[in-house]
Design goal:
34% of the residues are buried. Helices cover 0% and strands 60% of the residues. By secondary structure, the protein is mostly beta strands.
């Protein structure tokens, strides 16, 4: 598989994976398997489960991010809609399980581009609504190939890599006010060649 994501929802454990441009779902507990139906090949995806056991799947093509949701364990998906003209969605779920943090890389500029953060609140099972405004969390200028938000209560961490031709650094920014403001970047690890 080109990409794999494991997650738990209710009493089930799911393995989502991408082969080429197609996304598949395997329920480890019930041994059920299905292919996610999409009209365009996926370059990258991420999926989370909410406190209502709804599944939210975001995937990107070369220039667009799409979102779908399922309330029946991934047997059927609804709302396969274009939600952003960015790429590489990476998801995080709040500790309460009702808020999805989505980070995107701007579709222009490749890996050198800025990282944007959006939040969506679950208003009903399988339904997300925009919660707040989009924010630029990491500015343009440094190659960032990996990033992921983590949240517990009112504290949110964004962990990411910064690369140049000779080394990669692992860094983090932290918010203690629910993602309204973030402190200066902290270096977790450096790697020089």
């Amino acid at each position: 598989a080109d990409q794999v994501k494991m997650l738990r929802s209710g009493d089930s454990t799911y393995c989502f994976f991408r082969l080429g441009g197609t996304i598949y779902r395997f329920n480890v507990v019930t041994n059920s398997f299905s292919q996610f139906t999409q009209s365009t090949a996926a370059k990258q995806f991420d999926v989370v489960a909410s406190s209502t056991n709804s599944l939210y799947l975001y995937y990107s093509t070369t220039t667009t991010v799409f979102r779908s949701s399922s309330i029946d364990g991934g047997f059927t998906w609804v709302g396969n809609a274009n939600v952003s003209a960015n790429v590489k969605p990476v998801l995080g779920i709040s500790a309460t399980g009702d808020t999805v943090t989505v980070m995107y890389r701007a579709s222009t500029g490749g890996d050198m581009s800025q990282i944007l953060r959006f939040r969506y609140r679950e208003t009903a099972p399988g339904t997300l609504s925009t919660f707040g405004t989009s924010q630029v969390q990491l500015a343009t200028g440094v190659n960032r190939t990996m990033y992921r938000p983590f949240r517990y209560a009112n504290t949110e961490w964004i962990v990411y890599t910064e690369d140049d031709a000779l080394n990669t650094d692992l860094k983090c920014i932290i918010s203690t006010d629910g993602g309204t403001t973030y402190g200066a970047p902290l270096t977790i690890s450096t790697s020089a060649l």
